[in-house]
Amino acid sequence: MVKDWYKGGDKVYVAVDCIIFGFDAGVLKLLVFKRRVAPFEGRWSLIGSFVRPDESSSEASHRVLKEITGLDNIYMKELRVYSEVDRDPGARCISIGQYALIRVDEHDKELVESHGAKWYPLNELPNLVLDHGKMVSDALERLRTNAQFYPIGFELLPQKFTIPQLQQLYEVIFQKQFDSRNFRKKLLSLEILKKLDEKDKSSSKKGAFLFQFDSDKYKQIRKKGFSIPLFKNQDVL
Amino acid sequence: MVKDWYKGGDKVYVAVDCIIFGFDAGVLKLLVFKRRVAPFEGRWSLIGSFVRPDESSSEASHRVLKEITGLDNIYMKELRVYSEVDRDPGARCISIGQYALIRVDEHDKELVESHGAKWYPLNELPNLVLDHGKMVSDALERLRTNAQFYPIGFELLPQKFTIPQLQQLYEVIFQKQFDSRNFRKKLLSLEILKKLDEKDKSSSKKGAFLFQFDSDKYKQIRKKGFSIPLFKNQDVL
DNA sequence: GCAAAAGTGTTACGCTTACACCCATGG
DNA sequence: CCATGGGTGTAAGCGTAACACTTTTGC
Questions:
Q1: Chain mean pLDDT for chain B
Q2: Contact (Cβ atoms closer than 8 angstroms) between residue A215 and residue A176
Q3: A44, A67: one domain
Q4: Which residue numbers delimit the Nudix hydrolase domain (chains A, B) (predicted)?
């Protein structure tokens, strides 16, 4: 960038804030840490960073995620931009909310602790700085909406999981019980699960078969799919 | 804002760019204008602006929309942030894409012309500056996805419209023909259309009854609705 | 042998889809 | 009177939803 053609225009600080969901011990949790800059230094905050001159917003959010959890290749999507003029008393600063789904079993717990970050169940969250509470509720709403239409639940479970685990996750996300026979039938009928020969015996004597998400098959289905149901009954929310 | 607590951090230019859709003469059109700043001054561009210190990104996009079309209260949603480091050779500048649906019959045509803005059918669009072409294709994809689940088509039609008009719009959006009996049945079964006593005779001798979108009823349905179908068949895209 | 979770099948209903003819009117 | 677009009904098929019992095994 040799020249600034827009000189005289207004510049602002641009940050990313990550709304990081995990599924652990049967509940949805959120990863937060203690803010390291004034104002509000030391208060609970989403994990974020200013966007650097040499990176995009998506690169910035992946960078901080890796820094704190050690994880690469995370499911992360832009939520929205928070740009209210007075949202940050520290300075005019807009923030891009990015929500992430991570596998709690794969992340680096010591790294997380060393940054003073902590997992909180969603219903025990402390108050967060700025508009971060709003970001969390927006992200939760988005998670619910998207989980209705896309198989994103898998991003929150271990690579190998059982059908009852999957059902429990969806029950937590949607705050609703499902019939286990219909749930199993439905999920298997999608043909995006690969059944393994192993069983998980951690939650029952009989043991439950483990499955893997088959993202190749999913991509195939997506490709040819697209039936465009106009409005499909109650999906008109 | 009395003090800058983040001094020493990097600031960037933040702009909004509006992807403005209209439905006219049976085709989807996009409103573009000639860029007024260097570099690329005079080339076709989405309509945008820098975000000012005293406004949010949403306020900025509504401001430029009003400035060019004279319209208030427009359906406008954030698409996503475009923040690739080299997206704008003029300077490091991130842009927030905002897509808008407007009623072509209600906008101020002279105002549009006086700004050098022009409606182009989507398949006759000139090349646009920067990453604006990408913004358009992203917005179109979003429009299609959203139109499957939410009744947003009404935002593109006159307040009063006929069922055949509505069908034509959906056929254009989805590039797909619908059976007129099923289409009518489906839309009426949603119970969000109010039938008027007037007829529109502009496209047939018999004339077609006019309808209005009933947003109150729609809100009611949304409120109690929410049946959460897990994945509803092909809706798993 | 029993407690606790995993796993399985069938039926009724409602929504979706396919399909063809009559109606109203202006010219 | 006829050409043009508007408007209507029905039957078959498919996916959804409701429902209860058997299996496995560690203790």
A1: 89
A2: no
A3: yes
A4: 11-143
